[in-house]
Amino acid sequence: MSEDNKQQALAEKELGNQAYKKREFEAALEHYNKAFELDNTNITFLTNKAAVHFEQEKYEDCIKVCEEAIERGRELRCDYKLIARALQRIGNAYLKLDNLDEAIKYYGKSLTEHRTPETLQKLRDTEKLKKEKEKAAYYNPELADKAREEGNALFKAGKWPEAIEQYTEAIKRNDKDVRPYSNRAACYLKLMAVHEAEKDADKCIELDPTFTRGYIRKAAVQLVKKEFQESIDTLKLAQEQDKEGKSSREIQQQMMKAYTAMSPMSNDNESQEEVLKRAAQDPEVQRILSDPVMQQILQQMQENPMAAQEHLKNPQVANNIRKLMNAGVLRMA
Question: What is the DSSP code (8-state) at residue 324?
Answer without folding.
Answer: H
